[in-house]
Structure formats: structure tokens, C-alpha cells
Design goal:
Rossmann fold, 12 strands, about 425 residues, alpha/beta, 17 helices, single chain
């Protein structure tokens, strides 16, 4: 493909991403399958352009006079990110072959006029309502938080299965496969790999035999903080794909009762092979939207983990396209859902038992506000202060709550709050 044809392809992929809900990666794969003539170098160059544009979308749209279509964003990126002079951008837009059509007068004038000072949210590359929240939550550190959240090439973390192996053994296996793992700074079970070149984790023997799983260090820390004890009754209320279920099972060392529930059966089914690989067990229970299906466990659980459905804004460094799909209304809806789920899940906790509230969100409406709503409605649940003897990360806690983020812990963004039922 010519460089110009690659630009045209990137523009059309950006339009498809904007119009749908699928991850950028999936849209790009589908494009590759439908356009077999594109070689691996072409696909790589197109993907680089697409991600570059997505991460700088706010600024590029601003430069292009508010236009959000793929063509305008690509033109903006050649000007503002690649610093190409006008003649080169025009040469790439000659309209020949499969390249994009020539620049319009308006497009030309957008990239030749002075950029001027960008509003904070444009420079940060995040929606305005998100930046307003960041300013409130992080104060002077908000730009650093925003920058790290949208920075490319997030590492790949592995959680080793301490029931089967040691971190040193897995490290050896990874080095033998010519990878360069590092120990994660917070989690004793974690190994970190660079995102580039992408390691083929699933092909490794240790993955197939359950010696390790892919899991962000933030999730590993959460599993350590809740400290599921062997011999107890534990409910992973929003189990999803089971990442945390596996972590909890590992802490429980095969002793006690572990229940993983979710409202989506397909997600629960995906946990089964993961449990088998890891050599651990859990009861999988499909529940209704109102929590129906777990009544037998009312007042019975020592620990309930609520890893609530959320905006996923803590993972935007991995899925920057999602930043532009989120609306303030959706965040409001999620806050309501999270508050309801917490009330349902709290019924399962026995007196003296604990409930943990977790999101992978960076937004206060889904984090502190939901925690506050739970506290107001459930005065019999007392906040449990997070202390260093629970985990070193507690130095960053505010009382019973903890925020993690790419900027502060080098993990994805997470919120954690812990409560104990007093009566
Ligand atoms: C953040 S994901 C869980 C991720 C999972 N714990 C992990 O570590 O891989 C949230 C999950 O909550 C589930 N969910 C949505 N509404 C729910 C409800 N009313 N009750 C319980 N789970 C719900 C979703 O299906 C989704 O799987």
C-alpha cells in the first residue's frame, strides 16, 4: 500500500470505531480480514496512525474546527503530531490511486492557521466533564493523572499461581522464552512485561498449565487487600471473567466456600476453564439483576467482593477509544446501578463479615459518591481503615478508601473501599 492509501484506510477505520461500540483492536482486525492485500507492515502503520489519532483526538478535532471524522483527524495528525509541512500533506492527498482526495480550502486553512492556546481538557485529551472531575479530585496533580492515564503502551502484568509455582520459576520460564520480566513493585505475585513487542502469553506452557494468568497489578493488590482466608465463605458478587475469582481462590488455598456470581451466564462460563487451569474450585451462580439466586447465603458470607460494573475509565490507557464514548449521563446511570448492587450484595454479609467495593473507574461519581451512598444507607457497616500491615499500598489510602492509577501506582485506575458489618 502507498503511504497515502494507508492514511485513507486509517481514516475509514477511525470512522468505524467512532460509529460502533467495539474495541479499536477488534475493528482493526476486521479491517485486516476484509482487506487481505494489506501486508503486516501496512497493518502496523495503519494501527499506529489510528492509535496516535485516538490518543490526541481532542486536540486534533480542536485544530480541525470541531470536525470529528476520520479524514479530518488524520489530516490534523499529519500537521500537529508529525509536523509535516503543508506541501507534504498535500502530496499525500493528491487523490491518486487509493489515497485520500485533495484538501479542501477549509482544511488547508485549518492547518495553516495558528493553533492558539488550547483549553485544559483539549490539551489533556479527555472529555470536558472528566477533566472537571479530575481537577476536583486530584487538584494540582490532575494533568499528570490525565497524561499517564492516556499514555500508550501499558505493560502486561502476570499474576503467578502460588499454589502451583513461584515467581522465580515463572521468571525463568519467561526469560527462556526471550522475554524480560520485572517484579511488580507492589504485588508479591506479579511479573511485568513490556507491551512491545507484544508477547504471546497464551502460547507459553506456564499459561496453559495455570502457573500464571494475565492480571493487572491493581487487581492483584485488591485480592491481597481483601485477604480471603482459607476456610471462610467468600462471594465474588460481580465475577465477570473471573480474574479476581482466581485471585481469591488462590488466597483461600482450596479451603472454604467460594461463590462467583454474575448476571451474564456467558461470563461465568468463561471462568470454568480458567479455574481448571489454575487447579482451584468455585461455585458459579447466575443471579438476577436484583440479586435473586443467592438468598441461601443471606447473612452468611465472611467476605463479599463487589467488583462493580463501571465506566472502565481506569483502563483508558489500554482502550483510549472508550474515553470518547462515555457520557456524563452514562456515569450517572452507573452510579445508580452500583449503589443498588452494593445494597443487594450487603445482604449476604454476616455480622462481623466484610464487604469490599471496587471499580476500575477514575471518576468520583462512581467511586467516592457510590461509597458515600452505601455508607448513608447502611450505617451498620463500619468503614475499615486500610493499614500498612494489610498491604504496603495502604500508605496511599485515605482512611478506608484507596485510589490507584497509572500515575500513582503504575497500575490501571482502581477504587477500593472496605466495610465491616457491625450488627
Ligand atoms: C468489572 S466487571 C467484573 C470483572 C471481574 N470481577 C474480574 O476481575 O475479571 C463487572 C461485572 O458485573 C456484572 N454485573 C452487571 N450488573 C450486575 C448486577 N446487577 N449484579 C451482579 N453483577 C452484575 C457484569 O456482568 C460484569 O461481569
Amino acid at each position: 500500500m502507498t503511504p497515502a492509501a494507508r492514511l485513507a484506510a486509517a481514516a475509514s477505520i477511525l470512522d468505524s470505531i467512532a460509529q460502533g461500540r467495539q474495541p479499536a483492536e477488534v475493528v482493526m482486525k476486521a479491517w485486516g480480514t476484509a482487506n487481505r492485500y494489506a501486508g503486516s507492515k501496512d497493518r502496523r502503520a495503519i494501527a499506529d496512525r489510528v492509535y496516535k489519532v485516538i490518543r490526541a483526538r481532542a486536540r486534533l478535532s480542536w485544530i480541525m474546527g470541531g470536525r470529528e471524522d476520520g479524514r479530518a483527524l488524520v489530516i490534523g495528525s499529519l500537521h500537529a503530531l508529525d509536523n509535516l509541512p503543508l506541501e507534504e500533506i498535500e502530496a499525500l492527498h493528491s487523490g491518486d490511486g487509493y489515497g485520500p482526495r485533495p484538501l479542501s480550502k477549509q482544511e488547508r486553512s485549518r492547518i495553516t492557521s495558528v493553533e492558539g492556546e488550547l483549553p485544559g481538557w483539549v490539551a489533556a485529551g479527555l472529555p470536558k466533564f472528566v477533566v472537571e472531575d479530575f481537577q476536583k479530585v486530584f487538584g494540582d496533580d490532575w494533568q499528570n493523572q490525565a497524561h499517564e492515564l492516556m499514555a500508550p503502551r501499558a505493560p502486561i502484568d502476570l499474576r503467578i499461581n502460588s499454589l502451583k509455582t513461584t515467581r522465580e520459576d515463572v521468571e525463568g520460564e519467561l526469560r527462556a522464552a526471550e522475554l524480560s520480566p520485572e517484579y511488580t513493585p507492589w504485588s508479591e505475585l506479579g511479573l511485568r512485561l513490556a507491551a512491545e513487542p507484544p508477547p504471546n502469553i497464551q502460547a507459553l506452557e506456564g499459561f496453559k498449565t495455570g502457573a500464571f494468568e494475565i492480571q493487572d497489578e491493581g487487581s492483584q493488590i485488591i485480592c491481597a487487600l481483601v485477604d480471603a482466608k482459607p476456610g471462610t465463605t467468600v462471594v465474588d458478587y460481580c465475577a465477570g471473567g473471573g480474574g479476581k475469582t482466581l485471585g481469591l481462590a488462590q488466597s483461600m488455598q482450596g479451603q472454604g466456600r467460594l461463590v462467583a456470581s454474575d448476571v451474564v451466564n456467558k461470563r461465568l462460563e468463561n471462568i470454568r476453564p480458567r479455574l481448571e487451569r489454575a487447579g482451584v474450585e468455585a461455585e458459579l451462580v447466575l443471579i438476577g439483576q436484583n440479586g435473586g439466586g443467592l438468598e441461601a447465603l443471606n447473612d452468611a458470607a465472611d467476605l463479599v467482593l463487589v467488583d462493580a460494573p463501571c465506566s472502565g475509565s481506569g483502563t483508558w490507557r489500554r482502550h483510549p477509544e472508550d474515553a470518547w464514548r462515555l457520557t456524563a449521563d452514562e456515569v450517572e446511570r452507573l452510579h445508580g446501578l452500583q449503589t443498588r448492587i452494593m445494597s443487594q450484595a450487603a445482604k449476604l454479609v454476616k455480622v462481623g463479615g466484610r464487604i469490599a467495593y471496587v471499580t476500575c473507574s477514575m471518576l468520583s461519581r462512581e467511586n467516592e459518591d457510590t461509597a458515600a451512598a452505601f455508607e448513608a444507607a447502611h450505617p451498620n457497616f463500619k468503614p475499615v481503615p486500610l493499614t500498612e500491615d494489610m498491604h504496603a499500598v495502604a500508605t496511599l489510602a485515605k482512611g478506608h478508601t484507596l485510589r490507584m492509577s497509572p500515575a500513582s501506582t503504575g497500575t490501571d485506575g482502581f477504587f477500593f473501599a472496605l466495610y465491616e458489618r457491625a450488627q
